[in-house]
Amino acid sequence: MTIIKRPRRMRESSFSRALMRENNISVSNLIYPIFVIEGTGVRQDIESMPGIQRLSIDELIKDASECHQLGIPAIVIFPYIEKKLKTKDAREAFNYDGLVQRAIKKLKSDIPELGVISDVALDPYTLNGQDGLVDSNGNILNDETVEVLNKQALSHAKAGADIVAPSDMMDGRVGSIRKILEENKFINTKILAYSAKYASSFYGPFRDAVGSSESLGKATKETYQMDPANSDEAIDEVKLDIQEGADMVMVKPGMPYLDIVFRVKQTFKKPTFVYQVSGEFSMIMAASLKGWLNQDDAILESLISFRRAGADAIISYFALEVARLLKSKT
């Protein structure tokens, strides 16, 4: 039997597989999300996210330092806010002496070379767990919310954040934040827009982690986050955010939306990030803890799928573990 073309020839040896490999995972593609909480010496387990903890600022510095030493270029911080500080108007979000602002200042003082991304959204700070302010009828107030987001983003920039990341999905917030940053001379503060953020069922563990799950209850975020059935709408949303001044755009969640990552990167050729969200993390962890998956292999395969789809950077709760793994192989 004579077969002229044998694709398996190049798959036969590890060296030839490496030579033809189209995509790779590098530590420089990774961003590590960290949850911060008040206190000193606190490492508080998050039950729905095995291996992930809420950290006090001193412990945050320890993990952030390891990220930097391993070559992870940036971290993103999310707060767990005390119930007594949650209000209808979310005013704690822009308190310059608030938890996030103090964490940013400490990070930039101790590890200035590490990129610090701050989440700009109100759900950790509102009484109802929504990303926006709410009127007496339960409607999300878009423009009023944007005014608070402006103050929040500016307080993060003043604290030293390298990138502010509005994740709220309010209309017009990117342009408004860009304007307030320019007016206050923060011309180099970058904006990472959560441009295609879907109303996903994969956010549950995250809401536990930031303490908004109980506040939100059975309510949904479908009036501002995107319908999972829609694809063209994502392109419109991304286009608007780029026009309004976004430096980078985000697709969230990750693996269920690889087609969106691909379309966004192919259409706009802009820095395109993807968020491997808490539900994706917890599914892989649950299966690996049961012995149903090889944990390391499953993690790396999930990350390479994002790179194959076109993602330039990946926010993942596996980032620190993967960075350690990659270092062990060098």
Tell me about this structure.
The protein is of the alpha/beta class and 330 residues long. The protein has a single domain, classed as Alpha-Beta Barrel (TIM Barrel). It is 40% helix and 17% strand. It has twelve helices and twelve strands. The strands form two sheets. An eight-stranded parallel beta barrel has the order 1-4-5-8-9-10-11-12, surrounded by nine helices. It has a two-stranded antiparallel ribbon with strand order 6-7. Strand 6 (133-134) and strand 7 (140-141) form a beta hairpin. The longest helix is centred in the middle third of the chain and has 18 residues, at 142-159. The mean pLDDT is 95.
| Low-pLDDT ranges | none
- Give the assembly state of these chains: single chain
- The 3D shape can be described as globular
β-strand percent reads 15-25%
Distance between the termini: 42 Å
Strand neighbour order, sheet with most strands: 1-4-5-8-9-10-11-12
The major β-sheet equals: 8 strands, parallel, barrel
CATH fourth-tier homologous superfamily: Aldolase class I
Kindly report the average pLDDT value: 95
Please report the first level of CATH classification, the CATH class.
Alpha Beta
Report Rg.
Answer: 20 Å
Amount of helix = 40-55%
CATH level 3 topology: TIM Barrel
Total number of domains = 1
Tell me how many strands there are.
12
Order of helices and strands: HEEEHEHEEEHEHEHHHEHEHHEH
CATH structural architecture: Alpha-Beta Barrel
Name some characteristics of this structure.
two-stranded antiparallel ribbon; 40% helix; 330 residues; alpha/beta; 12 helices; TIM Barrel; eight-stranded parallel beta barrel; 12 strands
